[in-house]
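Dear support,

We are seeing what looks like truncated structure output for some complexes. This example has two components. We would appreciate it if you could run it in full and send us the complete token output so we can diff it against ours.
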Amino acid sequence: GDSVTQMEGPVTLSEEAFLTINCTYTATGYPSLFWYVQYPGEGLQLLLKATKADDKGSNKGFEATYRKETTSFHLEKGSVQVSDSAVYFCALRGGSQGNLIFGKGTKLSVKP
Amino acid sequence: GAGVSQSPRYKVAKRGQDVALRCDPISGHVSLFWYQQALGQGPEFLTYFQNEAQLDKSGLPSDRFFAERPEGSVSTLKIQRTQQEDSAVYLCASTPGGGASEYFGPGTRLLVL
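Here is the complete output from our reference environment:
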């Protein structure tokens, strides 16, 4: 079945460092891909998404590009802030009305 | 505007007790999903409604789990004879449909002792 694999955490970075969180997927067909973020004490929020190959999703300085050839959707940010400390989840949806399938999450801690 | 709300936010149950978790989706949202998130894991799909119809319940882990959405708005997830392995955060999400992204509620944290 469909699945998502993302890099294990926790990831600890200094403020203004470059961030990459790897995400690869296995799916039949052409899934939509998502990154969700869960800040401490808050619910899941959509960070960005891409619905077809070569699409780039971006939001709040974060970017991810849908790479069909490598089945990847890596999350990047050029300069992280302390406020980016959170758990990040990569997810896919196989069909237009299907449920999301999530990775296990990567905890990011950014130190001042 | 109001987002997805869930109640209670926290629930402690004794093993064997029945519990009911409520989800109030965003008004007018057609689709509603329930997910279970164990500690340190990503959310896992439980069940999906489109209006009042339960279209997919393949993720429900056992017949002790039951969900309903009788009028196509509020949904209740019921767990009978709770077990310790049921301890998790239960998330509800709603969407207007048509491939739009989900809005998640804050979750109900269930602890079974």
